Amino acid sequence: MGARECPAWLWLLLSLLWLPLGLPVLGAPLHLICDSGVLERYALEGKEAENVTMGCAESCSLNENITVPDTKVNFYAWKKMEFGQQAIDVWQGLTLLSDAVLRGQALLANSSQPREPLQLHFDRAVRGLRSLTTLLRALGAQKEATTPPDAALSAVPLRTITADTFSKLFQVYSNFIRGKLKLYAGEACRTGDR
């Protein structure tokens, strides 16, 4: 019995089911992974969470400052940066952002704030970050980000800021996806060898 190829629509369906779960979508056509709509969906979830938390100024305080990646992008400097350095910047930023979201989720669990609506947004953000990590692995970012010891000396340190509210945390989440992550994914997909 010969092996049959999976139709493209089935790959799309399976990819959409696996990606939010953080499961690897290995073997999926690269064009599905490079679809900007996938990144936009996660960015919109972050923006929705930011909007929900904007209305609760005092009660949505994190009670501590959490370090998050700076989402500002100097496009001139970004274009001059080597692809491997971009991968390092994005991978480190995603790692820091994942840690920050998990810390925010823990602070919410230990606070007296109403948890139900915020917990839903944190759950989505955690699932989204797992999926984005899988996406970056599929693009080869983790491999690009592992640098030889001498190259690490010339690596630019990750710029960071602090978030002191849930709104700021979700704003950084959304902006990071729309900014550096989208730029990196676009370049990786354009080159086609990732």
TrEMBL record:
SUPFAM superfamilies: 4-helical cytokines. Disulfide bonds join 34-189, 56-60. One of its GO terms (biological process) is positive regulation of cell population proliferation. Keywords: Disulfide bond, Erythrocyte maturation, Glycoprotein, Hormone, Secreted, Signal. GO terms for molecular function: cytokine activity; erythropoietin receptor binding; hormone activity; protein kinase activator activity. InterPro entries: 4_helix_cytokine-like_core (IPR009079), EPO_TPO (IPR001323), Erythroptn (IPR003013). One of its GO terms (cellular component) is cell surface. The keyword NADP does not apply. Residues 1-27 form the signal peptide. It comes from the Eukaryota. Its main location: secreted. It is found in: Secreted. Hormone involved in the regulation of erythrocyte proliferation and differentiation and the maintenance of a physiological level of circulating erythrocyte mass. Binds to EPOR leading to EPOR dimerization and JAK2 activation thereby activating specific downstream effectors, including STAT1 and STAT3. Belongs to the EPO/TPO family. This is Erythropoietin. It comes from Saimiri boliviensis boliviensis. The lineage of its organism: Eukaryota, Metazoa, Chordata, Craniata, Vertebrata. The gene is EPO.
